Amino acid sequence: MKVLNFLAVFALMGLTSAIQAQDSLNIGQSISAAGSNTSVSITIDNSAAVLGFSYGATHDANVLTPIEITQGTVTSQLNGGTGAEYFFQELAPVNGPGVILACITTFGGALDSIPAGTNQEVAVMTYAVSGAAAPGTTTAINPVTTLGNPPTNIVFTVGGVSVFPASSAGSVSISVPPPSPPTLGAVDICTCLADISWTNGTTYDSVEIRVAGVLVQTVAGSATSSTVTLPVSADTICVRGVVNGTTSSEGCTIESCPVFTPPPPLKNLACGLTSNVPGSGCEYLLSWSAPGTYSAINVFAGGVLQVTLPGTATSATGSMPFSPTELDFVVEAIDICGGTVNQLNCSLLCEEGPTFVRGDCNADGSNNIADVVAALGFLFGGTFTPLCADSCDLNDDGGLDISDPVFLLSNLFSSGSNPAAPYPNCGLDGTDTDALDCANFPVCP
């Protein structure tokens, strides 16, 4: 205490009256995690060379515990790099909690002083931060003249004169532990919406989400997941916690929206009539190849949607009315994002034609051996001309030849296949794409 009293006398003494100058002693600020150590700088602004200084500073003992005070960048360079000759610290002074520091640059000989300047670091105070310190809070370190016995003043010694500088308080802010970098979950490749999740470092008041540096969401402090829109090109997705208005550092990852590749188009559209129903219309069949994965396939007729089929469909059937004009069909593939992959087109003509019974070659109202004889007579004997050539096309291959009576013989006597429609009742030729015609078939209306 004798040394401290000596310093107090040195600091307070004046060869003339004390000078009030535009000088200052400033306690710095730091940010520290709970449970760690932190350092706070003491800087001075001095208009003239300083041979010594002293100060006291109080703190909250529930948050900070002083560890040591070391010389700053300016004082440590004094006296050829050996530092100030007198650098006294008291970490538990009377009237605390707080610390006291007293410094004399040189005792004698060639006096080495702190030159005039601004923001000159003369000391560094190191504290242990309580592990119970609340994240997002700030605790003050205040310059005072009440610590020690006798109390230590805040003073500069300039040429043997006491200069009482202005002083400013400092602080230690308890940092907010950051959340973990977010991890990517399910991604909607069409909208680029993605699920993200993270782990919170503490209990936050809120969590901020930034994409490419832009704040896009603020969610509840208890949240550990959300949905964001991924950037088109690779960029940061970051989360940070907020407690008492203090933000944590960011936990970040780099992501981008997956590239959507459309499926290959539909191809090989085939369109045809499967039947011609008298007094009604035609039945049609559309078929195609589907080499890709689609969400749906739409079928339009005359510009009107007829049906929406699953994306795996490769055919469609339906009916169309008799008409002297063709009906236009469109088969459209839709990708998983709702876009049109491609469209295939075709047209069909449904005209009402003559009715007949296939296999009744002689047009007598029945199918029997007489029809075989009639067909042979036409083909080889020149004794018969069919009224309705289509009725004698027994195998429905679009031509009249020996295969037709053979087909009917097989049907009549060997359990062979029945003739194609219309059979056994009157009807229209649903496959009327050949050169054969039916000019007259009196048995049918």
Q: Tags for this entry?
A:
single chain; 445 residues; mainly beta; Immunoglobulin-like; 4 domains; eight-stranded mixed beta sheet; five-stranded mixed beta sheet; 28 strands; 41% strand
Structure explained in plain terms:
This protein is rod-shaped. It has five helices and 28 strands. The N and C termini lie far apart (135 Å). The model is unreliable at 1-21 (pLDDT under 50). It has four domains: 2-174, Immunoglobulin-like (Sandwich); 183-255, Immunoglobulin-like (Sandwich); 267-348, Immunoglobulin-like, CATH 2.60.40.10; 353-445, Type 1 dockerin domain. Strand 24 and strand 25 form a beta hairpin. 10% of the residues lie in helices and 41% in strands. Strands 2, 4, 6, 7, 9, 10, 11 and 13 form an eight-stranded mixed β-sheet that branches. Strands 5-8-3-1-12 form a five-stranded mixed β-sheet, with no helix packed on it. Strands 16, 17, 19, 20 and 21 form a five-stranded antiparallel β-sheet that branches. With 445 residues, it is mainly β.
What can be said about this structure in brief?
The chain has 445 residues and is mostly beta strands.
User: Which term fits the overall shape?
Assistant: rod-shaped
Q: Please estimate the helix content.
A: under 10%
The major sheet is characterized as: 8 strands, mixed
Number of folding domains? 4
Query: What is the beta-strand fraction?
Result: 35-45%
CATH topology of the largest domain: Immunoglobulin-like
Report the uncertain regions: 1-21
Structural class computed from helices and strand pairing: mainly beta
Which architecture of the largest domain does the CATH hierarchy give at level 2? Sandwich
Terminal-residue CA separation: 135 Å
Please report the total strand number as a whole number: 28
